[in-house]
Amino acid sequence: MADNAASPDTLTAPPAETAETAETADSGAAPDKAQTAATNVRAEADFAARPASRPRRLSALWHPVAAGLVAVIALSALLGWWGFQSYQLRKAHREGTEFLQAARQAALNLTTIDWKRADDDVKRIMDSASGEFYDDFAQRAQPFVEVVQQAQSVSVGTVTEAALESQTASEAQALVSVSVNTSNTTGAEPIPRAWRMRISVQELDGLIKVSHVEFVP
Asked: Domain residues of the chain, as ranges?
C-alpha cells in the first residue's frame, strides 16, 4: 500500500517541470520580442527620416544643373545674336556690291556709244532705267541717236573710280568717275574727258535699275 501511495507524488512531478520549462521558454522569448520591437522602431525612424534628406540632396544637385542651363541659354542667345549680325553684315555687303556694280555699268552704258549700233546702245540704257531717269532719257533718246549717227562718233568710257555715298535695303547712291575717249570720221586724235556722275539705283522686282543720273563737278 505504501508503494501505491507514493505513486501519485511521482506522477505530479512532470507538470512542474513542464511549467518551469514553459516559464523558461517565456522568459527566453521576451527578449526576442523586445529586440524586434526596437528594430521596428529604428526602421520606422529611418524611413521617416528619408523624405527629409532627399529634398536636400535634390536641391544640392539642382543648383549646378540650373547654373549650367542658364549658361547654355545665354551662350545660345549670344551665338544667335552674333550669327544674325554676321548675316546682316554679309547681306548689306552683298547688296552694296550689287548696287555699286549696277552704278558702274550705268556709267559705262552712258559713255560707250558707237554710231553703228547707236539704237542698241540706247536700248541697253533704257532697259536698265526706271523712274525719273527713264522718263527723261526716253524723251532724249531719238535726238541723241540722230546726233551720234550724223557725227559718226564712237565714245568709249572707262570707270576710274566708284564708291557708294549711301545705301538702304532697296536703293543706293553712288559717285562714279569716268574717263571718256571720243573719236569720229574726221580722223582727229581722240581727246579723253573726265566726267563725274552721281547715280541713284534701286531694286525693283529683283532687278537693279538706274533711277537718277546727275553730272557733278
From this structure: 95-216
Of all helices (H) and strands (E), which one includes residue 82? Answer: helix 2-111
Sheet holding 207-216, edge to edge: 113-114, 154-167, 171-183, 191-204, 207-216
The CATH T-level fold of domain 95-216 is Nuclear Transport Factor 2; Chain: A, (3.10.450)
67 exposure class (CB count in 10 Å sphere: 0-12, 13-18, 19+): exposed
pTM for the whole structure: 0.61
Q: Which residues of the chain have pLDDT under 70?
A: 1-65, 82, 84-88, 91-92, 187-188
CB 128 within 8 A of CB 106: yes
CA distance 47 to 121: 96
Q: Which residues contact 195 (CB under 8 A, 6 or more apart)?
A: 111, 157, 177, 178, 179, 180, 215
SS3 category, 204:
strand
Specify the DSSP element, H or E, that contains 112: none
User: Contact, 178 vs 107, CB < 8 A?
Assistant: yes
